[in-house]
Amino acid sequence: MNKALILGGTSDIGVALAHQYASNGFDLVLAARNLAKLTEIQRDIQIRHGVKVSCVLFDALNYSSHSDIIDSNQDLSDAICIFGYLGDQRIAEESFAEAEKIIDINYKGAVSILNQVAESFINYDGKIIIGVSSVAGDRGRQSNYIYGSAKAAFTAYMQGLRNRLYKSKIRVITIKPGYVITKMTNGMKLPPFLTVSAKKCAIQIFKARTKSSDVVYISKKWWFIMKIIKLIPERLFNRLSL
Predict the structure, then answer these.
(1) What is the pTM assigned to this prediction?
(2) What percent of the chain has pLDDT over 70?
(3) Domain 3-237 maps to which CATH number in 3.20.20.80, 3.40.50.720, 3.40.50.300, 3.40.50.150?
(4) Quick one: pLDDT at residue 193?
(5) In the chain, N or C terminus with fewer CB closer than 10 Å?
(6) How far is residue 39's CA from residue 194's CA, in Å, rounded to a whole number?
(7) In the chain, what are the domain boundaries?
(8) Would you state the pLDDT for residue 74?
C-alpha cells in the first residue's frame, strides 16, 4: 500500500490533494498546525475513500520537531510540501518581522522538513518528493518580491535536491501553480483565464508524479507568460508595474 505525507494538510490545495491521493488508494499522513481541522478532514477522507489516515502536528517554524515526524513515518512512498505563507508585501517592506516570516515559512521551514524526508528516502528508490513553489519565483517583481524571492530560493533548493537524489532513483518534482482559488488568495482580483480551482491544481499535481517533467507549471499559460517576463531586459522591466 502506498502512503503519502501531505505537509500543509489543512490548506485548500492540501485538502484537495489528500482526496486525490486517497481516491487512488493511498494511505495518508496529514500534517499541519491545526489538529482539530485535520481530524475533520481525516474523518471525511476515511468515510469517502476507505483508506487509513493519520494526523500529525506540524509547525514549519518548529525545526527541531521535524525529524520526529519523519522518524515516525518511515513507510512513506510520497512526500508533498504544500504549505506556504503569502504574507503582505507592503508590510514586509516596512517590517522585517513580516519579511522574516515569509522567508522562514516558505524557504527555511520547507528546507528543514524536506532535508529530513530526503535522508529517510535516500536508500529506497522509487520514492517521490513534490515541492510546491510558485511562478512568483521566476522573476522578482515589485508587487511580491519578498514572497517571490523565498519561492525562488525554494525552487533552487528543489533543483539541487533533484540533482543529489537522481542516482538514488528518487523523483523530485517542482510544481509552479499560478493563481489558485484558495483562502490565501481570498479577496484578490484574479484573472479568470489564468486562475484554477484547488481541485484542478491537485489533479495536476497528482498527474505530475507519473510524468517525466521535473518542473511542472499547473497551466501551460503560465509557462509561456513567465518565459516572456524573464526575457524582458532589465531597463525595460524596471519601468513596468508588475
Answers:
(1) 0.94
(2) 100
(3) 3.40.50.720
(4) 85
(5) N
(6) 33
(7) 3-237
(8) 93
Q: How distant, in Å, are the alpha carbons of 20, 55, 209, 238 from that of 241? A: 38, 43, 36, 8
- The predicted pLDDT at position 141 comes to 93
For residues 85 and 102, the answer to whether their CB atoms sit within 8 Å is: yes
| Biggest distance spanned by C-alpha atoms of the chain | 57
Tens-place pLDDT, residues 26-70: 999 999 999 999 999 999 999 999 999 999 999 999 999 999 999
Query: Are 196 and 12 in contact, with CB atoms under 8 Å apart?
Result: no
CA 204 to chain centre: 13
State how far the Cα of 226 lies from the Cα of 8, in Å rounded to an integer.
26
Tens digit of pLDDT for each residue in 131-180? Answer: 999 999 999 999 999 999 999 999 999 999 999 999 999 999 999 998 89
Query: Could you tell me whether strands 27-32 and 171-176 are parallel, antiparallel, or unpaired per DSSP bridges?
Result: unpaired
96-106: per-residue pLDDT in tens?
999 999 999 99
